[in-house]
């Protein structure tokens, strides 16, 4: 039966997608690259679809993404079955994608909870909340924190709350802004990366359509703590979670540039699968969000 042959080779498909190449997949599986290639070709022949894009890095096609999701679900359920039937304390892999701001703030409560769960392992990837859902669709993870409210296929979605951000800078930068050295179009900005357009979204919300000046200095810093340090040092301004900045505003280390805030709605999207560990993680996510989000 075609399906049985396909299932025996799903581990090879996962290895190719996770490592990004046939050679790296071969090394992780302890076989030759030609063996990996043969298994993928056999799987594609069995399914009747191309499953892997032969690019650099290698990636799953839409048909391949369906099998990748299936393989990860099977892996989770297999690990849980081992825990229940044999009492093994093997790690149950819970792969989650979350935005950096949440990971550095309210998600810390979830990490504390996870430390008390026997047999659970967390594999966390960081991605902007506006782009994380595509990783769930590709099968790269089993759950995401996202700003997307519409559930993707095979998943369920729950509203978590709103993460509130304030526009802040150092006192020295605020003085330069007030003196007219900068305006909103030219005020230097610190952001996580090219996908992070939160300050543009905020200014469009408050000022109408906003386009920063081509001459504006930008600092791309892929670290929550790094962005905060850059703002404190006076490199530029940024949108930073309210829970972090209020103590720094109170002691005079930061200045709020505008009285308004930006509220980002967050949702939890996860597989529709019966899993004790995933349910436990979901409960912890909801508890942390209820305590820390608006």
From TrEMBL:
Transmembrane segments: none annotated. Keywords: Activator, DNA-binding, Transcription, Transcription regulation. GO terms for molecular function: DNA binding; DNA-binding transcription factor activity. InterPro entries: ArgP, LTTR, LysR_HTH_N, LysR_subst-bd, WH-like_DNA-bd_sf, WH_DNA-bd_sf. Residues 5-61 form the HTH lysR-type domain. SUPFAM superfamilies: Periplasmic binding protein-like II, Winged helix' DNA-binding domain. It comes from the Bacteria. Signal peptide: none annotated. Belongs to the LysR transcriptional regulatory family. This is LysR DNA-binding transcription regulator. It comes from Corynebacterium resistens (strain DSM 45100 / JCM 12819 / GTC 2026 / SICGH 158).
């Amino acid at each position: 039966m075609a399906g049985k042959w396909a299932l025996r080779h799903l581990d090879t498909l996962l290895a190719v997608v996770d490592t990004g190449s046939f050679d790296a997949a071969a090394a992780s599986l302890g076989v030759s690259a030609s063996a990996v290639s043969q298994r993928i070709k056999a799987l594609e022949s069995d399914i009747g679809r191309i499953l892997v894009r032969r690019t650099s890095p290698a990636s799953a096609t839409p048909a391949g993404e369906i099998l990748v999701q299936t393989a990860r679900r099977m892996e989770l359920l297999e690990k849980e079955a081992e825990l229940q039937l044999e009492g093994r304390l093997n790690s149950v892999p819970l792969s989650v994608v979350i935005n950096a701001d949440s990971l550095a703030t309210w998600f810390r409560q979830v990490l504390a909870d996870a430390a008390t769960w026997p047999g659970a392992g967390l594999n966390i990837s960081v991605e902007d909340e506006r782009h994380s859902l595509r990783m769930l669709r590709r099968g790269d993870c089993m759950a995401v924190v996202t700003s997307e409210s519409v559930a993707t296929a095979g998943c369920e979605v729950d509203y978590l709350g709103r993460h509130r951000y304030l526009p802040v800078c150092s006192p020295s930068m605020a003085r330069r802004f007030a003196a007219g050295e900068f305006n909103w179009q030219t005020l230097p900005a610190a952001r996580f990366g090219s996908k992070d357009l939160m300050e543009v979204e905020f200014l469009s919300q408050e000022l109408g359509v906003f386009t920063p000046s081509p001459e504006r200095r930008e600092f791309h810093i892929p670290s929550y703590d790094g962005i905060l340090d850059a703002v404190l040092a006076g490199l530029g301004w940024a949108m930073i979670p309210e829970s972090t900045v209020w103590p720094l505003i109170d002691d005079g280390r930061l200045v709020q540039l505008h009285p308004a805030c930006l509220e980002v709605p967050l949702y939890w999207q996860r597989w529709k699968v019966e899993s004790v560990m995933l349910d436990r993680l979901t409960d912890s996510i909801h508890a942390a969000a209820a305590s820390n989000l608006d």
